[in-house]
Design brief:
Elements lengths: L1 H16 L5 H16 L7 H18 L3 H47 L2
Helix pairs in contact: 2-3, 2-4, 3-4
Amino acid sequence: MRSLLVLGLAGLLAACSSSPQPAAQLALSEAAVAQAQSVGSTAEDAALQQAIRKLELAHAANAQGDYYNARLLAEQAELDARQAEAQALVVKQQAVNARIQQRIDALRSSLEQQP
């Protein structure tokens, strides 16, 4: 009877300590990768490469039932994808700033040429 109680408690503890399947986090990470790509991050960007690789590893861990590592990898993939997105947006903003500066310079030049 006592061993049955110990086995029951051990099973209960194992059930409580196991991580739930990270379906929501995987979906969030996939959306973050898609968002990074939609703003201009490409496969050549290191952060996006890392995000995609970690997302692949997260899916593999999830398929093997290793939900804890799947969640960790998916969270890391999301962060890498957000970094890739931010980097792509910075590059775009720098290009916009350069075009604005060119226009300002051209306007100054034309104003200086007027009598």
